[in-house]
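Late entry, evening session. Most of the bench is empty. Finally got around to the prediction I had been postponing all week. Sequence below, unchanged from the version circulated by S.P.
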Amino acid sequence: MPAPIPDPIQIAEEAEKERAQLESEAREIDVLIKQTTGEIDKLQQRQSDIALRLRQLDANLESYSREDIKQAYLSAQDVQLRLLMMRSQLEQLQNKQRMMQRYRAQLDRVSLVARQLAEASASVLLGNDHARSIDQQSIVQIIEAQELERQHLSRQMHDGPAQSLTNLILQAEIVERLFDADPNKARTELANLKAAANATFQRIRDFIFDLRPMMLDDLGLIPTLKRYVQTFETKHHIATHLTTQGETALPSHIEVAIFRTVQELMNNVARHAHASRVQVALDLQDDPVIITVEDDGSGFDVESVLAAARQRGSSGLANLEKRLQMLHGKIQFQSSTGRGTKVRVELPLA
């Protein structure tokens, strides 16, 4: 039995309530960004002061005790680590701020459409039930897709940057304890800590790019896809080739939909296909836009895999299908076990 479709007024009220909560969270993020920026400014000033102090030490080593020299270098390392963590935190906060702004705009649109639907429904006593049902279901799909995206982001933040930063703090505490007991081992651990901090910083940059590549806003779709394909090839050691036709200017939401579609399909190749080669083609010459992603991997039984994905509801393929359906797009899979996979997506511009 299908689930009851929520009343449009209720949907609008829930969207507006969520927006109010979002406004409160946004104000907190603004405060955190200001505090973090202020802390970074202080750390940069302190770093400059310590750099000057170290130059003085280097010029007059005989005038200072071993303890003074040790404390100066410890202070420099501490400030450098804290500055790296603060800058990473600022990037995360700024990215979250941008995501919240986009989500707030989406909630505004949901609320507006829901209230327009309610007004239209109130003016019609009989008939058009099917059309109203479709509109309401579309709104429900939008809300569900947004919530799934927030859950996915939360898991990514917990398993990725948050865990990595926690590990860095633990390593820093180990180094701190070792300085007096075993300076040589402390230096080794400090080198490991520096390497871990650099690796964490790179993972955070990749994480931010996956969430919303700023290149998409600054340079457009094709340069962003080229960068993504190059990164994918390096990261997964899969020969990857991108071809594009046409240079048509596209609406922002279509560019985002194309990028997310390619991203999800290529993630599936990396996770499941065991491929050595993947070909991505983008045809922007006509309406609809055509996207194809083809690999030489192990392939799969299309019907059973898609049925399982739709049943779970929260899988990447199921979410991709929902997003394309809301944009009136189509997706076709050609695959069989041991014969690779070809996916074709049609995305109308209207």
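Two things to note before I forget:
The mean pLDDT is 77.
The first strand starts at residue 239 and ends at 245.
Will write this up properly tomorrow.
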